[in-house]
Amino acid sequence: MSFEALLFDCDGVLVDSESITCGVLRDMLEEKGWQLSLAEGMGHFVGHTVRNRAQLIFEHTGWRLSDDWLEQFYQRRNERLASQIRAVEGVHEVLQQQLLPRYGARMAVASGADRFKVELMLAKVGLLDFFSGRIFSGHEVPRSKPAPDVYLAAAAHLQVDPRRCLVIEDTPVGIAAGVAAGATVWAYCPPGAAAQSLLEAGAVRLLGSMRELHHAAAPA
Fold it and tell me: What is the CATH number of domain 18-84?
């Protein structure tokens, strides 16, 4: 199958950010009485917004999430991302050499994260120019992932039928969003990732390396 557009998740797909964000979250939840390892924190929160996990946090702390606390979290998260964020290995190479020549401006980012975070990270790792003007946030649509809204918004902006889009994701929640949008979903699944859960969520191909995305640039 050939595709007319590529839609990328950001965290864990373009940038290696999940452990950084969850590390900050773990530290702040420990201050509220919930002790988590980094692996446990990632299991609970990767693929979700913090606000959407408010009930889980309440169940473990007896404390209700507040806007002030979220603002503190965003500030601490952004500071750590700005100093530690790295691109996923192979992303620059495959975008520049394989995908940009074929898709050009028909590539977009559709993230569940807030826009400031997404643009901060992409700018820090030198990826922002690949997606300038084509970044979509789950915070700016009625429903975030696993609902399809952010992917539908990206496809509509590109004027491409979602069924002709290839989505690149790394979590079951994000894969469910891409499938619900009607897109084909490939999952970035580096060594150690839970491959079976990605396939069960609806991914039709696993990418052990982002360099394998060159298959998406094969002639139609």
Answer: 1.10.150.240
